[in-house]
User: Fold this.
Amino acid sequence: MEALKQGADALFILLGGIMVLAMHAGFAFLELGTVHKKNQVNALVKIMVDFSVSTVAYFVVGYAVAYGTSFFIGAEQLAARNGYELVKFFFLLTFAAAIPAIISGGIAERARFWPQLIATSVIVGFVYPFYEGIAWNQHFGVQAWLKASTGAEFHDFAGSVVVHALGGWLALPAVLLLGARSNRYRKDGSLSAHPPSNIPFLALGAWILCVGWFGFNVMSAQTLDKISGLVAVNSLMAMVGGTLVALVLGRNDPGFVHNGPLAGLVAVCAGSDLMHPLGALVVGGVAGAIFVQMFTLTQNKWKIDDVLGVWPLHGLCGTWGGIAAGIFGSKALGGMGGVSLSAQLIGTAMGAGWALLAGTVVYGALKATMGLRLSAEEEFDGADLSIHKIGSTPDREASW
Assistant:
């Protein structure tokens, strides 16, 4: 029976890893559908190569930083317990690799290729697992201190803060250091229209992400006996809450409609195992409002050219999710309890602050040494031709 349980757990978390791996196709198509046609190939290549670099960095360094587990032992030892530790690594790798995929959307259309890969290796090798170890593996006694001080540990079941807020807050300094795309803002201060290049691809990316998110959230239980239908239903409710609010506030804009469910899912990750489904619906709706309002504000008023709105979507909605777990996870609002709003505020602030500092250091150092941005000519020609020497539809382009 023990061998059967071990095998079932390994299969369970492997399926979760595969579902979250599929989400990276969602990241790719969401970016592909948003950027100009001349940058579509680059969007696809970046996600694939970022994932590959992330895998090596997390395998060699990052997983050991977060969990103290080294893979530099014999294959026989690695295969013990049906290889559960290996498939757990695979599952958690897909979380880690989401960070550069998130950042990719913010810096699209004008970032150089190789500096971003260097940033990916540093972020996935150290920056992300450093905080991951604090939140999910009791590093440095932070969780014990929070429990002693507030009565509960910082709770982030599936990564509203650990993954999404970190990704969004890491992206913000990168976006600011790069500056806006050429001709995004006119000399008179008005906004130049940069509509999505392909709404069906954008929608496909959003749908792939939504489907994969149920692996992201539900399989965060990591063993079959801890699986929770509450997590699945709360994820669903937050998804539709974000969609409906984004539909109304976004005035039927398809970009907002397809990012609304993602905002809701980002926000519900932290407390999806604690909230009542109606609480999850509210959390998702608030996240949809945060995304629509803050995307509009950052683009139109603050002149922050965050192409896919990753800071509002992941950074701010992830921050809201960390805090919301302390509100809607309480028994007073129908939740499971065992969570402290104070602990949630402190843990969330620590994650956002660490990401903002680390992003500033990593991307600031790269800008000072290698440069982050394509030249004006390369940006005008597009990253597809400038970096990859081919467009997204070369046969059609050749016929012209």
